[in-house]
């Protein structure tokens, strides 16, 4: 069984697992802010994980970097992609821990398809303003490394069905994807589209599994709010290291429970960035990259 760590502050409680440095549970005054998962078992649907060294998927698990072709293991066989990086199966090591903060570390690579070495550090801090997370990556090898990262929480606004939740975030564009493999086609404006949530509106029956961009940052932060008509809500903010945002309404076929939370994933780069190069981070030897975000009750 993977170890886990409980943080408490200001009415909030967070539970983080060593496996995948995953946020297993986050509550405020006993109310779930993310879809939890059971202690000790597998992590369903990548809930709460840190996806690194790439977010989302890589087509066919293949990419070329500095003229060298690489083949990653396929872990999403139904779409023939490499999904959500290499860090999520790993048990991260605690570096520091107290009642309101936790730092976990892990090393990624060299491994099949990723002949690079990264030292990752995830820091969680809980206070009266919510849960604040930062993930840093240091290139520990002597060659440049491709890199990207995102969190994978499924937010919960309240007890009403997801269709009734009111969503708002400022993104002018989204990435159209192929319906079968969810691979990039091209960026299109949200203006006039069902995916336009620049003004708050109910999600309704809209199905989303897309990355958004051209995001508005105010004072260095972007924000998303998700509110239940019953009066509760949850918010997430993130810094300019993440110019992309994956939104997924968690649609599942019967009899699997469907639309039980809204996946909200601030990403440093879009899907398949290892091939497109779009916003792909090139970490030079010894270089560090840090991305940060916060989740809080509304």
Automatic annotation (TrEMBL):
This is Aldose 1-epimerase family protein. The lineage of its organism: Bacteria, Bacillati, Actinomycetota, Actinomycetes, Micrococcales. InterPro entries: Aldose_1/G6P_1-epimerase, Gal_mutarotase_sf_dom, GH-type_carb-bd, YihR-like. It comes from the Bacteria. GO terms for molecular function: aldose 1-epimerase activity; carbohydrate binding. CDD domains: Aldose_epim_Ec_YihR. One of its GO terms (biological process) is glucose metabolic process. It comes from Paenarthrobacter nitroguajacolicus (Arthrobacter nitroguajacolicus).
């Amino acid at each position: 069984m993977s170890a886990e760590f409980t943080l408490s502050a200001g009415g909030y409680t967070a539970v983080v697992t060593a496996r995948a440095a995953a946020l297993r549970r986050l509550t405020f005054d006993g109310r779930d802010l993310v879809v939890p998962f059971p202690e000790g078992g597998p992590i369903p649907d990548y809930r709460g994980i840190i996806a690194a060294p790439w977010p989302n998927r890589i087509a066919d698990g293949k990419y070329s970097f500095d003229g060298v072709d690489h083949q990653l293991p396929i872990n999403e066989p139904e779409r023939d992609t490499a999904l959500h990086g290499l860090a999520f199966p790993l048990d991260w090591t605690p570096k520091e821990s107290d009642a309101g903060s936790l730092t976990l570390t892990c090393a990624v690579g060299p491994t099949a398809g990723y002949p690079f070495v990264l030292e990752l550090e995830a820091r969680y801090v809980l206070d009266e303003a919510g849960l604040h997370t930062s993930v840093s990556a240091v290139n520990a090898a002597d060659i440049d490394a491709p890199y990207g990262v995102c969190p994978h929480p499924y937010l919960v606004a309240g007890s009403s069905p997801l269709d009734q939740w009111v969503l708002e975030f400022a993104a002018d564009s989204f990435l159209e994807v192929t319906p079968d493999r969810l691979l990039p086609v091209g960026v299109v404006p949200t203006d006039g589209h069902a995916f336009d949530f620049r003004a708050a509106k109910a999600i309704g029956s809209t199905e989303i599994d897309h990355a958004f961009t051209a995001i508005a940052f105010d004072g260095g932060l972007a924000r998303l709010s998700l509110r239940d008509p019953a009066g509760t809500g949850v918010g997430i903010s993130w810094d300019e290291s993440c110019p992309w945002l994956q939104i997924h309404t968690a649609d599942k076929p019967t009899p699997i429970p469907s639309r039980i939370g809204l996946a909200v994933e601030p990403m440093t780069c879009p899907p398949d960035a290892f091939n497109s190069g779009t916003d792909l981070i090139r970490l030079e030897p010894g270089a560090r990259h840090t991305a940060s975000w916060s989740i809080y009750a509304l």
